[in-house]
Amino acid sequence: MQQMMKSTTQDENVPKKGPWTPEEDQKLIDYIQKHGHGSWRALPALAGLNRCGKSCRLRWTNYLRPDIKRGKFSEEEEQIIINLHAVLGNKWSAIAQNLPGRTDNEIKNFWNTHLKKKLLQMGIDPVTHRKRTDLNILANLPQLLAAANFSNLINNPWENALRLQPDATQLARLHMLHNILQVLSSSPPSNLDALNFLGPNFRDHQLQEYLRMQAEGLLSSGQTVLETKDIGHIQSNNTQNLEITPQTLFSDCHSMKDTKVYANSNNQYGTSFPVPQPTHLPPLVPASPECSTVNQMDDKINPNDISNHSSTSTTFEAWGDLMDDEASENLWKDIIDQASSQPWSIS
DNA sequence: AAAACGAACAACCGCCATGTG
DNA sequence: ACACATGGCGGTTGTTCGTTT
């Protein structure tokens, strides 16, 4: 209550906060129409407003500007936003430049309140713009539980609860590996050798784990089984030069395959795809955006990625965030470091 | 009728990049 | 090269309003 009083009782020296009154709006409009905004910092005093310059700027750019289009977003605008978001991520200002009359703030709000939900209802992850697969993890739960000794669970529930957590982490890692292997094995056979870029530690340790889990049926049933001969092939060719590209490796992560992005000198983007399509591989999609630790990955999808690979290293950093734990921190750091040092990774 | 709740959106905050002296 | 000012940006919070109980 005291806080309420504080905000309503205006100190002359402290710039006012909160909603703008029609009178304030009119003062701002009048001043800018007569003089232009000039320096935003100087504007409030000159316009007779008890606001900070920043507040005036935001009020003008987001609400009062005469070229602002208000009202509901059209279907076409919706589609443009969705398409651009798939490419640009949360680059609201860049998206706004392709929607005349709409502000970045308006688009951001519209995304957060409408489009995000709409995509979720359609079963599309609003972060990755791919079909959601977080249920895949849930689908594995019965197998995970089966893997744990059920009688022990009854006798000693706490010990088993502690055991189960690392198993889940390991499973997540193996899913990651599985996806990498699938991408590699779907490429020409020589590219399978590229797995070696992950380094001997990774290869020996994780492949063994992968095979073990596969043998024990801990990988989800719909996934392609990697044959042992392929593993042997990988293991026997350590020295071959690498041809793998981020596009190859991440074709599973990003739906950029058929996407063309155009950018003009005004930083305006255009895309030539309707809606990103799922690829043939089981996607490597984080769970819901709200609880995912790899949300940042969507930021890695930007037009620059298409023309060069400047953000590849940060993509691997995101992987690092996902994968890290104390037990195998060094192992995964090795992987990330090695991947980052590849020719296609520009730091 | 009114309290509780949730959706929508305006506004703010903090960080960062850029320009300027 | 450095410090400072300014403006842009994305994330978050606060307020309002409609709906439900």
Automatic annotation (TrEMBL):
<dbReference type="InterPro" id="IPR015495">
    <property type="entry name" value="Myb_TF_plants"/>
</dbReference>
<feature type="domain" description="HTH myb-type">
    <location>
        <begin position="16"/>
        <end position="64"/>
    </location>
</feature>
<feature type="domain" description="Myb-like">
    <location>
        <begin position="16"/>
        <end position="64"/>
    </location>
</feature>
<protein>
    <submittedName>
        <fullName>Uncharacterized protein</fullName>
    </submittedName>
</protein>
<dbReference type="Pfam" id="PF00249">
    <property type="entry name" value="Myb_DNA-binding"/>
</dbReference>
<dbReference type="InterPro" id="IPR001005">
    <property type="entry name" value="SANT/Myb"/>
</dbReference>
<feature type="compositionally biased region" description="Polar residues">
    <location>
        <begin position="1"/>
        <end position="12"/>
    </location>
</feature>
<feature type="domain" description="Myb-like">
    <location>
        <begin position="65"/>
        <end position="115"/>
    </location>
</feature>
<dbReference type="GO" id="GO:0005634">
    <property type="term" value="C:nucleus"/>
</dbReference>
<dbReference type="GO" id="GO:0003677">
    <property type="term" value="F:DNA binding"/>
</dbReference>
<feature type="domain" description="HTH myb-type">
    <location>
        <begin position="65"/>
        <end position="119"/>
    </location>
</feature>
<keyword id="KW-0677">Repeat</keyword>
<feature type="region of interest" description="Disordered">
    <location>
        <begin position="1"/>
        <end position="22"/>
    </location>
</feature>
<dbReference type="InterPro" id="IPR017930">
    <property type="entry name" value="Myb_dom"/>
</dbReference>
<dbReference type="InterPro" id="IPR009057">
    <property type="entry name" value="Homeodomain-like_sf"/>
</dbReference>
<keyword id="KW-0238">DNA-binding</keyword>
<keyword id="KW-0539">Nucleus</keyword>
